[in-house]
Design goal:
Length: about 400
C-alpha cells in the first residue's frame, strides 16, 4: 500500500474543518498529537497558522516530546565540505533514516535517498570543519572561541558564541570548545577548555545565556595536571569526554565533565591514543558507554569503560576484512562512528558525481554487513564545481536526532 506524503496545507484544512463543524475548538492534546507526527520542516512552517500553534510548537514540553520521538528514530547526518572563496569553505548538510536491521539471510544492500537540510556559507575554515561534532541534534564546528559556531540543521538556525572578556586574543586562539547536553534538565552547555589547564580555568556557558562561569576544580594549582593536546569530544548520557595529554598528538588521559554538576575529573586512558584524520583511534559511544576504538592491521580493538570510579575497562578484539579498507593505504574508507545498536559505520572519504555514496553498517556481534547506497546529494551549484577536487571532506554523524529547539 502506497503511503501519501502529508502536506501542511492539507493538515490546516482538516483541522480547520473539524473546528468549524464543532461547537468547541479542537482539543489541545489532539492538536499536539497531530503536529508532532509531521515532518519537522512542516511543523516549523505551521507556526504561522495561529498564535496558539506558534505557542505550542515553540513550547518546551512540545520540543521535548518531539526530541523523545526523534531519539527513537535516529538519522544519519552528512556534512559536505565544499571548496569556496580561497581557504574558506561552505558546508552542506543532508540527512537520512537508518537502514532496517538485517540478518545473515537478509539482503545485504539497499538504496536510500538523503534529504537536504541546510547550507552554511559563512566561510568555514577546513580545520574548523574537521572539528564538527553532533550533540542531541545540534552541530558545533570550530575548535577555538575565535571561530566557534553552533547550528541546528533541522531549523537552519546558526549562532556564534560570545567572547569571554577575560581571555586575551592569543588565549582565544589556544582554547578548545566543546558542546555538551544535560540530559536531566534538558540544557545545552559549551565548555571552554584552555590549551594549558595549569594556567587558566575552564569556563562554561549555558545555551541561551551570555555569561561565562568558572568551572570549579579547574583552578591553576599544582593539583591540576596540564593537558596540552585536546581531542574532539563526545557527550554520553550527560557527561562530556575528551582526550588530553602533554605529548604531541598522543592522548594518555581522558577528561570527564559532568554537564549538570559542572564538575571535572580525569580518567586514565586504557592505551595511548594516537590522533589522526581518519579516526583509527578515537573515543566512541558504544551501546551507551564510553569506548576507545583502535583500528590496526590485526583488527578492531575496543576498550569499554565499565566502572568510571575505578577506571576499569573491558577489552575485546574483532576481525573483519572490512577493516583493511581503513588501515591499508591508500585509504579509501573511513570509520565515522557507531549506531545506537552498536553497528560500526564505514564510509568513503570522497564523493563522486557518477557513483552512489555507499555506506557500510557492520554489526560486530552478529557479523552482518549492510551496504547502503545514498543518492540525492545535490544543491552544490553556486558553491563550486561538482567533482572530487572541490568536495574536500565528508563527515557523518550516525546518531543524529531531529530537534526543534531554538536558541
Amino acid at each position: 500500500m502506497e503511503t501519501k506524503q502529508v502536506d501542511d496545507k492539507e493538515v490546516v484544512r482538516v483541522i480547520t474543518t473539524v473546528q468549524n463543524n464543532s461547537s468547541e475548538l479542537l482539543p489541545l492534546d489532539l492538536t499536539i498529537e497531530i503536529l508532532k507526527r509531521l515532518p519537522p520542516k512542516k511543523i516549523l512552517a505551521l507556526r504561522c497558522v495561529s498564535k496558539q500553534w506558534c505557542s505550542i510548537i515553540n513550547s518546551r514540553p512540545f520540543t521535548n516530546t518531539f526530541m523523545s520521538m526523534s531519539m527513537s528514530r535516529p538519522r544519519l547526518l552528512f556534512a559536505f565540505n565544499i571548496a569556496h572563496d580561497g581557504d574558506k569553505t561552505s558546508v552542506v548538510f543532508y540527512s537520512s533514516p537508518h537502514p532496517p536491521q538485517v540478518s545473515k539471510d537478509s539482503p545485504s544492500s539497499s538504496l536510500m535517498v538523503a534529504k537536504k537540510e541546510m547550507v552554511l556559507t559563512k566561510g568555514i575554515y577546513l580545520y574548523s570543519f574537521n572539528r564538527i561534532t553532533n550533540v542531541h541534534g545540534l552541530v558545533s564546528y570550530g575548535s577555538t572561541l575565535h571561530e566557534f559556531f553552533i547550528c541546528n540543521p533541522t531549523t537552519g538556525q546558526v549562532v556564534k558564541f560570545p567572547k569571554d572578556q577575560t581571555f586575551t586574543p592569543e588565549e582565544e586562539l589556544h582554547s578548545h570548545m566543546y558542546l555538551a547536553y544535560d540530559t536531566t534538565d534538558g540544557l545545552y552547555k559549551v565548555l571552554l577548555a584552555p590549551w594549558d589547564d595549569s594556567t587558566r580555568q575552564h569556563q562554561v556557558l549555558t545555551l541561551g545565556e551570555r555569561k561565562w562561569r568558572c568551572v570549579e576544580g579547574s583552578c591553576n594549582t599544582t593539583s591540576c595536571q596540564p593537558n596540552l593536546i585536546k581531542q574532539r569530544g563526545i557527550c554520553i548520557n550527560g557527561v562530556l569526554y575528551y582526550g588530553a595529554s602533554t605529548e604531541e598528538w598522543e592522548v594518555s588521559m581522558i577528561v570527564s565533565f559532568d554537564v549538570r554538576s559542572e564538575q571535572l575529573s580525569y580518567i586514565q586512558a586504557p592505551i595511548t591514543i594516537h590522533l589522526d584524520s581518519y579516526n583509527k583511534d578515537s573515543l566512541q559511544n558504544y551501546l551507551g558507554k564510553l569506548a576507545v576504538f583502535s583500528f590496526t592491521k590485526e583488527g578492531l580493538h575496543i576498550w569499554v569503560l565499565e566502572n568510571v570510579k575505578k577506571h576499569e575497562w573491558s577489552f575485546k578484539t574483532y576481525v573483519s576484512h572490512l577493516f583493511g579498507k581503513i588501515t591499508t593505504k591508500p585509504v579509501t574508507m573511513r570509520f565515522v562512528g557507531t549506531t545506537n545498536d552498536g553497528e560500526i559505520v564505514i564510509a568513503p572519504i570522497m564523493l563522486s558525481k557518477d557513483e552512489a555514496f555507499v555506506v557500510i553498517f557492520y554489526n560486530l556481534e552478529k557479523e552482518t554487513k549492510t551496504s547502503v547506497g545514498f543518492v540525492g546529494f545535490e544543491g552544490f551549484e553556486g558553491l563550486a564545481s561538482y567533482d572530487r577536487l572541490t568536495i574536500r571532506r565528508i563527515l557523518i554523524s550516525p546518531q543524529h536526532v531531529e530537534n526543534l529547539i531554538s536558541f
